[in-house]
Amino acid sequence: MALNDLSKLTTLGVGGSATKIIHITSEAQLISSVIDADNSKTPLLILGGGSNVLISDDGFAGTVLRVETTGNSYEIDACSGGTITVSAGSDWDEFVLFTIDKGLANLESLSGIPGTVGGAPIQNIGAYGHEVAEVIARVRTFDRTVQEIKTFTASECGFSYRSSIFKESAGRYVILDVTFQLRLGEDSLPIGYTELSAELGVEIGARASIVKVRAAVLKLRGAKGMLVGLGINSAGSFFMNPILEKAEAENLPSGAPRWPTVDGKIKTSAAWLMENAGVRKGDRLAGAQISPKHVLALSNSGDATAKDLVELAKSAQAKVKEKFGITLQSEVQLVGLTLN
After folding, report:
1. Which of 20, 130, 179, 208 has the fewest Cβ atoms surrounding its Cβ within 10 A?
2. Residue 331 a catalytic site member
3. Element (H, E) at 36
C-alpha cells in the first residue's frame, strides 16, 4: 500500500496518495492545521467520511485533513424541542439514531446517509422529500480568508438543492460544528414520497412513527445499495436530479417524473433519465460499474481506477445528453478530475 493512500479514506476505494495526511481529533488542532497550511501556501483538502468524493489516481499534492472530531451538547424542552450542537467529524447516521432515541423528530427520512455531520450542510443533504436545511439553526465555521471563526444562521447559509454557501465558496469555510433545532415527538414529518409511503403502508401526506420511518428508509436504501458496508463501493448518488425551467420540462416525455420546486422550476429524476437513455444497472467499464442495485450509484467493482469511474460517468452523461438534451451534473466532489 502506498504511503498516505487516499483510497483507504473514501467509500469508492480509489485515489492516489497525498503528500501528507493529518487525522484531526480536536477543534484546536483543526484550526491550527488549516492556518499552518494556508500560511505556507500548502494545498489543502479537507475530508470527512469520504463518502461523497472521487479523488484522482494522481492523488493530492498537498495536505489532507481527515476530520474526526466528535461530541455534542444538547438541550431538550417539552415546548421548544431539542437544540443539539454536534462536532463536524461525528458520524451522520449515528447522530440521526441518537436524535430518534431521544424522541426527537424531523431527521428520520435522512437516515442511512453516509458521511459526517460537517459534510451535511455543505451538500445540503436530502432524501425522501426532505433536506437538512429544514432543521439547521446555525453552522459555526473557520473562515480561511480572514482566519477567524464565523457563525452562519440558517438564513445566511444560502441553502438550495444540494448546495450552500459552503459549497459555492470552494473551501473557504471549514465547518467546526452544526446546531440543529428538532421537534420533540413520536410522529414523523409528512410522508412525501410514494416509495416510502408504500413501504410504510400510509398515504402521501400522512405521518408515521419516527422509528418506523427510519427502519423503512434504511430498508429502501439498503435495497438500492446506498448504505455503507453492503459490499458495494460507491459514493451514493453520483449525479444530481436536474432542475429545469418550465419550458425545458415541457420537452420531457410524459412519463418523466416532475416535482415542482419552490422557485417555480421543475425537478426531474436523474435515475429515470439514465435508465431511459440506455444506461443499465450492472453496466461496466473496466473496473467501474453502474451498481446492480441502483443506476445512480457508480461503483468500484474491486479494481477500478478513478479514470475508469470518470469514463463511465461521462458515458452515462453523454447518453442522457444525446437522448434528452440535459447535461447531468455530478453530486460527488471531484478532486483533480472533471467530467467536461
Report:
1. 20
2. yes
3. helix 27-39
Element containing residue 81 per DSSP (H, E): strand 81-87
What burial class does residue 27 get, using C-beta atoms within 10 Å of its C-beta: 0-12 exposed, 13-18 middle, 19+ buried? buried
Helix/strand/coil percentages in the chain, nearest 5: 30, 30, 45
The alpha carbon of 69 is separated from its chain's Cα centroid by a whole number of angstroms, namely: 19
Encode pLDDT of 202-259 as tens digits. 999 999 999 999 999 999 998 887 776 656 789 989 999 999 999 999 999 999 999 9
Q: Is the dihedral of CA 227, 228, 232, 235 positive or negative?
A: positive
The predicted structure's pLDDT at residue 180: 97
Rounded Cα gap, residues 199 and 70, in angstroms: 34
Specify whether 284 is catalytic. no
Residue 237: active-site member: yes
Among 162, 214, 221, 330, the one annotated catalytic? 162
| pLDDT recorded at residue 271 | 96
Structural domains in the chain plus CATH codes? 6-67 (3.30.43.10), 72-223 (3.30.465.10), 233-335 (3.90.78.10)
